[in-house]
Design brief:
Elements (H helix, E strand, L loop, with lengths): L1 E5 L1 H18 L5 E7 L3 H10 L4 E9 L12 E4 L9 E9 L3 H11 L5 E9 L12 E6 L3 E3 L15 E4 L6 E3 L1
Helix pairs in contact: 1-2
The structure holds inosinic acid and magnesium ion.
Magnesium ion binds next to loops.
Length: 178
Amino acid sequence: MLKKLFSKDDIAEAVRRLARSIEKDFPNEEILLVCLLKGSFMFTADLIRNISNNVRIDFMRVSSYGNSMKSKGYINITKDLEEDIKGQNVIIVEDIIDSGLTLKSIRKLLQARKPKKLKICALIDKKAGREAKIEGDYIGMAVDDGFIVGYGIDYAEQYRNLPDIYIIENGASEGRTI
Ligand code: IMP
Ligand code: MG
């Protein structure tokens, strides 16, 4: 059963707030958004429309989950960036930070390519699941626990098309807007 956690209005407000923070940190600078496929495609599409800087986009796909709900703790790059990120202001755009293992690996990999700056923007932070020492620089929403779907985020490739964000119900979990 799906329970709505964040409406499209909550999401739009969070996206606008994230865009303002990014603009503030990078005044008059060019930015490269790295959209991590597939989960953050919708989020990135909304975010980029709210940023007034000169902004480029590139895509990367890593797999860390099969159709299960738990991170395997390692990543496999199935699609790499096309841009050379050396000297660029790079913002990794991720749907959810859970254990943080995926982002930790990606950050290390991208850092080795010598960007000017490397930041992390995540729509949802699941702090309770954290195993790696990593935090997002820009966070949209926080949830305590539970499995999230909708707004690009899937469970076994389902539910990406839902405009709002839902939790798959199996207990009590509260979402909060920031
Ligand atoms: P981590 O390595 O444990 O931080 O896992 C992060 C990745 O797992 C995210 O990019 C998501 O694709 C996926 N993920 C984590 N939690 C959820 C969830 O609640 N719903 C759907 N995907 C999730
Ligand atoms: Mg993902």
